[in-house]
Amino acid sequence: MSVFPKGFLWGGAIAANQSEGAYLEGGKGLTTVDMIPHGVNRLPVKLGQEKRFTLREDEYYPSHQAIDFYHRYKEDIALMAEMGFGVFRTSIAWSRLYPNGDELTPNAEGIAFYRDMFAECKKYNIEPLVTLCHFDVPMHLVTEYGSWRNRKMVEFFTRYARTCFEAFDGLVKYWLTFNEINIMLHSPFSGAGLVFEEGENQDQVKYQAAHHELIASALATKIAHQVNPQNQVGCMLAGGNFYPLTCKPEDVWTALEKDRENLFFIDVQARGTYPAYAARVFREKNVSIVKEAGDDEILKNTVDFVSFSYYASRCASADMNQLNTSAANIVKSLRNPHVQVSEWGWGIDPLGLRITMNMMYDRYQKPLFLVENGLGAKDEFTAEGEIEDDYRISYLREHIRAMGDAIEDGIPVMGYTSWGCIDLVAASTGEMSKRYGFIYVDRDDAGKGTLERKRKKSFWWYKKVIASNGADLD
Q: What is the pLDDT confidence band of residue 332, given thresholds at 50, 70 and 90?
């Protein structure tokens, strides 16, 4: 017998900015991710340290073509249907609907594209799970308004959100507001379109921007329920608990603080109010949140479920700093001596998933949805021209088992969408060689290749997992 409930949603996840390409087709405007190059300048741009408001001819921008999902979505969705997907997580590119972001009326061509794509999903009985903002703020909103540091963004985002809820009503009922909302603290430009001026208090900018996003998320949740009471809206956390490096009390406290730093956003979105610990954090960081009358009431529009990504657990100590933390992930962590790591230095810790899920359900008492989980790895062809990605199967098998244990612990879990179900551009590094998919895409880190799709060994394995509702993981 499977421990996974009847109706459990199995599927996979991608994001518009890492898959669609066609970066200026169909009336689409430029977004933040379109300005992030591959190579040595990638990190300074992502972190908001280097202003990048114009494209350079001497750099390669992976998002511009990506894997051309924009033109190939029918072929790709058919492959997902062949695996038996019941859910497909993707995002809407905000600038396909509002090229500048501040228009009063949407781009009809953008709406038509997504209507066709979601209808293609429904043809195969696949439920779309749609993220409204997945690391792609229209660039005009960055250059004209300073992105989320500006309160006007709330109006622009809620107009966009209402457009989505109304235009795709009947096609989409599962929604996420902001992808990995906590990443704005760690990667401000890619996370929220933030760039900084010399000498300003960056914490003030980030937390004020966070307030605006939290208000926008709460209002979008309210609008979704008004448009159709059947709509279900979730928040989305870049998940993974911090373990203390030792049982030294100072290490335990540092790990707790690091967890709170990330959970702060979900505390607000799931509980409807700022957590008690935030006051001291703001005081010590010299942060003063500017609120408007009624903001506290708006925040009470809480999400229906809590979604999250989980790739790895993290490790913290009182002595950690930039010199001894791993550069492998944008969320800084010490190397945990008790877990293996991937080719990119990410800790492989299936039990950490069960720990994270138990913590989150204890904290929020809302259904969970694991919407990103996977192993980035280099794939090599065998002499017969196949990809035997047993390392990926092993990673996913153990994490699905851990998710099953969490369900047996009593946690309600809506579904599972493995990250990068088809190979796409890695958000962290801009590489194609850091592959996650069940489906291989012929494209390299320099943007060369035929874009031909090919099933990997994991494709057939995951098909069997879905058909058995998680009972057959061998």
A: confident
